[in-house]
Amino acid sequence: MKIKSTTKLLDKADISRMIHRLTNEIMEKNDDPEDLVLIGILSRGEPLAQRIKKNIGELTQKNVE
Description:
Blueprint (H helix, E strand, L loop, with lengths): L11 H18 L15 H16 L5
Helix pairs in contact: 1-2
């Protein structure tokens, strides 16, 4: 079966906004980011976890594992 057309669900800016919102939700539920561990499945979850880790570090100036 051939796919006749493709539909773009999210662009780069949309994805960035979603990751920032997810980061904020994580921080709302966790007081101390140094007690937080992010785990991502290597195929696609690991890059997402790395982006969230970077955002948390920028927001809090603290290290996240």
